[in-house]
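Q: Hi! First time doing this. I have a protein sequence and I read that you can turn it into a structure. Is that right? Here it is:
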Amino acid sequence: MLLTRQSQIAIGILVACARSADRYLLTFEAASGTGASKEHAAKIAHLLRRAGFVTSVRGRNGGIGLARPARQISIGEVLRHTQPEISRVDRQDVLGGPNEAGFDGTGATALASIIETGWASFISLMNRFTIADLLVEQPPLRLACQDCRLSKAASPVALSTESLEAHAAHLHG
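A: Yes, that's right. Below is the predicted 3D structure, encoded as structure tokens:
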């Protein structure tokens, strides 16, 4: 469950915009903490604008700013736009093509299901956090669900996105 460089830069730009809510930032200013080039940052800012995360204003006092409050932008939503492969798991991609993994049809299907469940769990967790959660100076030592019984379930395949969301809503509000 690695984040692409594009996702890291996009989240960095959104956090910078949230921290400077009182003014628009030049794209390179917003991306300065990410180590991205001006051109790469501009491409990602364009993607963020098309997705509705930021607005842009041209002119002398122009730049980019959040299109909605930071607490309304979930990290999962950002990842679905910057890493669209998260939302769709192609079983051939998961297994490296037909029979390359050395599995018969049943083993391949089980592995693909496990990986799909892992992605669904990851996105479900990322949906619980927003850009506003990243504005804290001192992050908590442990996040909700790190110690909960659901994360230690015997069969990860049995966990669906719905059960994770219901669990999170019930126990972790």
